[in-house]
Design brief:
Blueprint: H1 3-13, H2 21-28, H3 33-45, E1 53-55, E2 62-64, H4 69-72
Antiparallel strand pairs: 1-2
Helix pairs in contact: 2-3
Length: 76
Amino acid sequence: MTVPKLILDFLRENEGSAFCADCIKAHLKLLRRQQAQQATAALALNELVNCQMDFCDECFELAPKNFRRDRVDLLH
């Protein structure tokens, strides 16, 4: 499974929550924080993730916000 797909699934399971790249990395057991950063940036360009700054629900740092469900359904 690709990193973007893992992130979308994770955010869907945690709908309504915001997570920073560090917390996404930890939850998904990714090797590098950059994997989460690059994937969420690409997802934002495709309007699958809303990158409006918000506080991470885990560590309280500023984080990209949850994805837009109506666009995620296009992946299936």
